[in-house]
Design goal:
481 residues, mainly alpha, 0% strand, 85% helix, globular
Length: 481
């Protein structure tokens, strides 16, 4: 039940992260113009590289360590301070290198680079990893919700013209700092004497660095394809690919949220030798994610040619083809979320996780260099989808003896069959209805019909996900009653 609540909290925040840009992006683009938006994007990207290196994977490591000792308050406090101070030292060192670099190479953008420096301090004080380890996602949601809404309000007040770029940057980073500071209010830890334990220090550095490598590899194929596309294919192709990728990312929150909220409990179960509980969590994750990701893929294939022009406008003609190519990422990402993020990281098999991500990054870069010069955005879309496929395939191969994939595949046929059924019905319905009604109503009809067919099919085939959902609802009613 706790996982379900944390999933909802995290899902709400992830959805909020996507809804607010829909409100703010059109305004920012019109007020600051391409130069202002580009200045913020470029300087923030440079700063984020230094922050990523300075953080050294200690956020995920800290979350895992807190989840292991969370039942012992004294150990929680000790491990918190040890990891916090270690992270602070490395980020301050990274900040020093950053300041030296922008001092010599910042040029006319120096003041903007300097404004981005506030992010280093907000990252130091950001202890959301601590609350994630304790599975206190409710506190994280409330803090971030208030800050996000405050940002929208202040944006329309203080950012009024193209000369307010520096104000915009300081607003973003200043509120991020405020959010980080708010986490320290009534923090549930004790004041303890922090002992510099050489053994723990080496352990934290080694564990953090191992977690840092896959993060670096992930950035290579998430950002690398956009850089290559912009350089070899032009900014228009880059914009097409970026927009189609954002469309997929908007719906991927359903997949990514379950991984974030279950990692602490999986780690705790593993280190407390609760194998049955651990295996049950993994099985339930596969059930839930297969039940959501498979229909998302087929649903996107149904509506992409109707939805894309309505959402992106006439200038993005052909973007639905990119969305269709990227749609399998729903399923691929759901599997890599369970295998990589939940299973391999929770069981400290970080080397296997790193290997899978590095393989994906290499494949993405190779395909992008080969295909982008001829196919532009299509080449980047193929590269990203292939990278996700290779990453998942490597993870499956590495864990074939540990996870019962035959059982998982067999239980997934209902979700695949239900999705294929509504896909076929909707494709026929689209040819009959789409030409006769408004685009919005056509889209609404297709989504409703697909949803009804899918749910009814799962009901009559007694799919596992319905039993899982029913069990969670019964537990909630029993608790409230």
């Amino acid at each position: 039940m706790k996982i379900f609540k944390n999933y909802i909290y995290n899902l709400i925040f992830q959805i909020l992260q996507l809804i607010l840009p829909i409100v703010t992006t059109p305004y920012i683009s019109r007020v600051l113009g391409p130069t202002g938006v580009g200045t913020n994007s470029y300087t923030a990207s440079v700063a984020s590289v230094f922050i990523l290196v300075g953080s050294l994977g200690l956020n995920i490591h800290g979350q895992q360590e807190i989840s292991i000792v969370r039942d012992d308050r004294a150990k929680v406090s000790l491990r918190f301070w040890q990891i916090f101070f270690l992270k602070m030292i490395f980020i301050l060192f990274s900040l020093l290198v950053y300041i030296l670099l922008i001092g010599f190479n910042g040029g006319h953008l120096f003041v903007y680079f300097l404004a981005q420096g506030v992010t280093f301090f907000s990252t130091i004080l950001d202890i959301s990893w601590f609350y994630m380890g304790l599975e206190n996602f409710k506190k994280i949601l409330y803090r971030n919700l208030i800050i996000k809404l405050l940002f929208v309000s202040l944006l329309f007040i203080f950012v009024r013209n193209k000369n307010d770029t520096i104000t915009y940057i300081l607003l973003i980073n200043g509120l991020a700092l405020l959010a980080s500071l708010s986490f320290w209010y009534k923090i549930p830890i004790q004041k303890v004497r922090v002992i510099v334990d050489k053994k723990n220090l080496i352990y934290d550095l080694r564990s953090g660095f191992v977690l840092f490598l896959p993060q670096l590899a992930i950035q290579a194929y998430l950002v690398g394809d956009k850089i290559i596309l912009g350089y070899l294919g032009g900014v228009k192709e880059s914009g097409m690919f970026d927009s189609s990728n954002k469309m997929i990312s908007m719906l991927l929150v359903v997949v990514s949220s379950i991984g974030t909220v279950t990692l602490p409990q999986l780690t705790n179960s593993f280190y407390n030798h609760q194998k049955k509980e651990f295996d049950k969590l993994i099985d339930n994750s596969f059930i839930f994610l297969n039940a959501t990701s498979i229909p998302l893929m087929f649903g996107m294939w149904v509506v992409s040619d109707i939805f894309a022009p309505m959402f992106f406008g006439d200038k993005f003609t052909g973007i639905n083809i990119l969305i269709d190519i990227l749609a399998p990422i729903f399923v691929l990402n759901s599997w890599s979320t369970v295998i990589g993020y939940q299973y391999l990281l929770a069981t400290k098999q970080t080397k296997k996780y790193t290997n899978s991500v590095v393989c994906g990054a290499v494949v993405s870069l190779i395909i992008c260099f080969l295909m982008i010069p001829k196919l532009g955005a299509l080449g980047a879309a193929v590269g990203l989808t292939c990278a996700e496929f290779v990453t998942t395939l490597v993870q499956v191969t590495q864990t074939a003896r540990e996870i019962q994939y035959r059982k998982i595949l067999f239980s997934s046929w209902k979700y695949l069959a239900g999705s294929v059924l509504f896909f076929l019905v909707d494709m026929i319905l689209k040819k009959l209805v789409a030409p006769k009604v408004d685009i919005f109503f056509s889209l609404l009809i297709l989504i409703v019909v697909a949803g009804v067919i899918y749910v009814v099919f799962l009901y009559f085939t007694r799919a596992d996900v319905l039993d899982l959902a029913t069990g969670l609802l019964k537990k909630r009613r029993a608790k409230n009653g």
